[in-house]
Amino acid sequence: MPHPSFTHYAAVDWSGASGERHKGIAVAIIGAADPMPTLVRPGHVWSRIEVLDWLLKETPPETLIGFDLGQSLAYADQGAFFPGWQDSPETARDLWALVEAICVDEPHLGVSSFVDHPQASRYFRRHGLREGDLFGAEGQPGGRGRMRVTEHAQALAGCRPTSNFNLVGAGQVGKGSLSGMRLFHRLPREVTVWPMDPLPQKGRVVVEIYTTLAAMAAGRSAGRSKVRTRGDLAAALVALGCQSEAVEDADAPIADHAADALMTAAWLRGQAAREDLWHPSTLTGKIALTEGWTFGVA
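Now predict its structure.
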């Protein structure tokens, strides 16, 4: 059954960029009875460590928190995260621990040490068109890169997922996913990370989100998922079940990261009671423990 007692719903638009603070990070939250979501610390330039501290110290105890990143890497297609590497982990939590161990001396939850690691780098496409010899489906070079089962399901839902092994291009989420794994590794076990952990009766629950799903639910297409004006944002939030409010300057710009977080927080509130989203038809126990899943993909 779905978690019965969420009082708040939060969304984090994440960033895997180098450095301490990132304009690409935005955090939004909405209460069960709130008319509209709000940005947390509007105008603030977040660090990844600050997001972790906020989650642990400031979120209400019954909050569903979505992170726009990949929880894990492809496993099911080849029966391993890193085929041929004797240190290849067996579960997502072990993968998080490996990323943390290799990057332990790197500040700000950075992951350059991992993507430049002599063995790990063989599986990634990195900047400068440096493609590892084990990047790609079936270990073959080229192509879009290996996909998780949930990413194939995203594609069937009309989204345009990218491989977490791809670290190149504006649409890549690989570095953000790897830095997110360092954050997940630091979460205390009383914070549930679904679907690696079973849903509790109460407490904070962290899930993977894909902000395009929220935009599509608001009536936008996958190719036009980004909202950049206050008028368009207001219309999207109304479509997601929020109350309508007057917008003084509908053409005023809003950062797409902020819009993504606001829309997805509202979308989470509207979707959290759907049992089918907590029990996707192709999510097996093995996939849950290794690849994870994107909440919202049935």
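The mean pLDDT is 93.
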